[in-house]
Amino acid sequence: MDDVCGLRGRLNESKIRTNAGLGSTTNRGVRELLTFHTPLDLVRERLPEKPVACVRPERVSIAATWFRDNFPGEVLYAVKANPSPWALDAMYATGLRWFDVASEEEIKLIASRYPDAKMAFMHPVKSRKAIERAYFEHGVRVFSLDCEAELEKIVAATQRADDLTLVVRLAVNNADAVYALSHKFGVSEADAPSLLRKARGFADNLGVSFHVGSQCMSPSAFRDAMDLASRLIREAGVIVDVVDVGGGFPSAYPGMTPPDLELYAKVIKEVFEQMPVAMNARLWCEPGRALVAESTSILARVELVKDGALHINDGSNGNLFDAAHCKWPFPVKAHRPDGEFEGVQQGFKLYGPTCDSLDAMEGPFQLPADIREGDYIEFGMLGAYGVAMQTRFNGFGETETVSVEDLPWTSMYAVVEKRAASAARRPARKSPRRLKVVR
Ligand SMILES: Cc1ncc(COP(=O)(O)O)c(C=O)c1O
After folding, report:
1. Fewer beta carbons under 10 A from the terminal one: N or C of the chain?
2. What is the topology classification, in CATH, of domain 8-56+296-404?
């Protein structure tokens, strides 16, 4: 293994190599990361040969703190967006204790790291063994489902447990989302009432959930989904104890400027108060992207310039799946280790390192026209669904992780930070209350 960042001796080798997808090279807590001031400093000092994830744990803390203070209910982090321990640690440090897990590996990761964490197994399709071990070995009590067959599996695998929270996932409109998630999961309007009634019969607590789609650009999508849930709850005639509004909270990317997150929280609070649910019903959300997207950029090296395109050492099978397959508009910046660029920009197509011709990113990415072999491209806003998507196809994909201290490209939390900064600038008052405490 290449030791770009000099950590090899300090870390358990097998720990680093295991767990691809759950971040084989991201398997480090905050305190184990080497820190550089900026990605350019790293480029100039180390000339990294492999892709590098430049992470900013503080961005995760700021996002998680915003959700803690502004979402009017419980926040469950959707681990799939980025299971890197440094990110989980940053969230945990803000007091976040609930995790939305989708697989046994995610359950084991959370259980081993945070014994007091609570988990909701929110994948609507699970193996019987996974359900059984989640319930009996890891204390998971919350399970999602979207059909009768899955309900039967959960009931059987938990031996008809009487302490289950069963969350019925509804199919909802995903038209306001940049990345729709409605094709695979969610019970239809027609089938939902009878499934809700059946699940009620086995549930200590009954929940409804939905996903409005990832990067949802309109708060009204949550209103519509919650209104639909209300209608189906009435039709079913059941008492509902949990309303889980899922993920979908947006981040800011070039060409995508979402409404303020405050508006999402406001709409959700207003509609929840009108829903026909138990008096003490709980409200949950499961953000992934909005908690981690801003935290990470990926540094990739240009290996060849050919026919006006750039061949780089990261791609669709590494950290750039969404850039290749969803044409996601990640911001880019070029870094030259030994000089400056001339300044004229040009649109480039990029190719990833594997032999698969699908490993290509159309862009066009605006980069200096004189970019050449040995220069680096930094892709911003890749904290969500970036390192989490890595594979080792063709032997590529290994990614070092370092922490950096510069600011991200864009932020949904800028207003919060401005407020915090101006509060910090305000001169300390001689307050009578403080004097009282001193005395
Ligand atoms: C069940 C569930 N919850 C939450 C999320 C997180 O969504 P997002 O990253 O859009 O917030 C996902 C994403 O796929 C999901 O499937």
Report:
1. C
2. Lyase, Ornithine Decarboxylase; Chain A, domain 1 (2.40.37)
